Amino acid sequence: MRNILKEMGFKATPARLAILYVLSRSKTPLNAEDILGELKKNNKHKKINEATVYRTLSALEEGTLLKRIDRRRESAYFELAKKHHHHISCLGCDAIEDFENDKIEAALGRITRGSYKFSRITDHSLELFGLCKKCS
Ligand SMILES: [Zn+2]
Ligand SMILES: [Zn+2]
Q: Fewer CB near the last or first residue (10 Å), C or N of the chain?
């Protein structure tokens, strides 16, 4: 983590390291409140408050280290930006599932070629929403 931060031009502050550590251990995207809860469990991070978590998350997102996930909730969710993928979020509970699909990626690539105004698409976001098997 320390090296990744340095490579991205970030100073490896204790808050950044702690937040990245929490996100790296989580199987699902987390919001600021979740992260703060995890940090509070571990008494070492008493000095990290809500404002620091918000500030750190947005800084790391701008540095493309984190990805913001739209879960149709009031708060923003984040995960470590690793291999490109998408999510299906349950609107009834916390269930979330990752998916990737080569055909979708190829189809999105073709959209660029058909565009009048754009010669390059650099990123996209695509999230699916519904009810999980337990909620439906
Ligand atoms: Zn559900
Ligand atoms: Zn994609």
A: C
Expressed in angstroms and rounded, the spacing between residue 2 Cα and the centre of ligand 1 is 36
The Å distance, Cα 101 to ligand 2 centre, comes to: 7
User: Residue 96's closest CA among 30, 42, 44?
Assistant: 30
Q: List, for residues 81-111, the tens digit of each pLDDT value.
A: 989 999 999 999 999 999 999 999 999 988 8
| Cα 11 to ligand 1 centroid, rounded to whole Å | 39
- Strand order, beta sheet including 127-130: 96-99, 86-90, 127-130
Around ion ligand 1, which residues have CB less than 5 A away? 90, 92-93, 95, 132, 135
Count other Cβ atoms within 10 Å, centred on residue 5. Answer: 18
What's the whole-model pTM score? 0.86
Main-chain phi, psi angles of 59, to 5 degrees: -65, -45
**Centre of ligand 2 from the C-alpha of residue 10, in Å:** 27
